Every structure is written in structure tokens, then in C-alpha cells.
UniProtKB/TrEMBL annotation:
This is Complex III subunit 7. It comes from Rhizoclosmatium globosum. SUPFAM superfamilies: 14 kDa protein of cytochrome bc1 complex (Ubiquinol-cytochrome c reductase). Pfam families: UCR_14kD. It is a peripheral membrane protein.
């Protein structure tokens, strides 16, 4: 069945998507898109553009190191000053692709995983009989 979601058709689709995500074309497009957005010209990193609303991001921001928090605030203040004068940083001072490494997304992923673990634990209503028998001390 060609329209099958599971089985071979589904796994082939996933393999194609993984190959496409790792392709040079997508990487080149991603880099082009990031450079044309303009945030690097203002001295901002990609993770600086993540909206701060919501408990998930707030918790990740709380977990940032003091140095990274200070650097983030400096980047925001500098970008604001540049935007009010409608100027950009000199090319040598702009954030390069190598410098634009995620610093907030890894923390967001950790917080998401912790929340998922807590929700799974909260769904646990009783100890399964297998575990009771296995752990019975006699």
C-alpha cells in the first residue's frame, strides 16, 4: 500500500527527511537565511531571538551562567542602541556563523526533558505487581 504511514513507506520517508536535513543544500540555505535575517549585524546570536515568554524559556534563562546572562544583556543593549541610530556593527564586529552557537536551546531541551519525566512520574499511580514481587524482601 503506497499511502501507508507505517512500515516501509514511513521508514523510507523518515530516512529521506534525515538525509535532507543533513544535506549541503539545506545547510547552505540555513546559513543564507541566518545571514539575511540581520540579527548578526546587530551583534545578536540566534538564541537571542527566542521569545522569553513562557515558563519553559524562563526556567532555561534562570539556569544560564552569570557570565552568559551578562553577555546576553550586553548584546541586547548594543542591538537596541544600534537600532535607534539605524546602524549596524562594523563587519569585523558582527557575529560570525562560528560564534553563533546555541547557548539557550540546550537548556530548553533539558527543561523540556525534565518536565516530561515529571509528567510521566506523576502518571504513575501504582507500583506494578512485577516490581513488588521482584523487590519483596523475605
Amino acid at each position: 500500500m503506497a499511502s501507508s504511514v507505517g512500515g516501509f513507506a514511513g521508514s523510507a520517508l523518515l530516512a529521506n527527511l534525515r538525509t535532507f536535513r543533513a544535506s549541503n543544500a539545506l545547510t547552505a540555505f540555513s546559513e543564507w537565511h541566518a545571514s539575511t535575517m540581520g540579527h548578526r549585524a546587530l551583534g545578536l546570536k540566534g538564541d537571542d531571538l527566542i521569545p522569553e515568554e513562557g515558563p519553559l524559556v524562563q526556567e532555561a534563562l534562570r539556569r544560564l551562567s552569570p557570565q552568559e546572562t551578562e553577555n546576553r544583556l550586553f548584546r541586547f543593549r548594543r542591538a537596541y542602541a544600534l537600532s535607534t541610530t539605524q546602524t549596524e556593527l562594523a563587519p569585523k564586529d558582527q557575529i560570525s556563523a562560528a560564534e553563533d552557537q546555541p547557548y539557550l536551546r540546550p537548556l530548553i531541551d533539558i527543561v523540556e526533558a525534565e518536565i516530561a519525566t515529571k509528567e510521566n512520574f506523576d502518571l504513575l499511580t501504582a507500583i506494578p505487581e512485577q516490581l513488588k514481587r521482584r523487590n519483596r524482601s523475605s
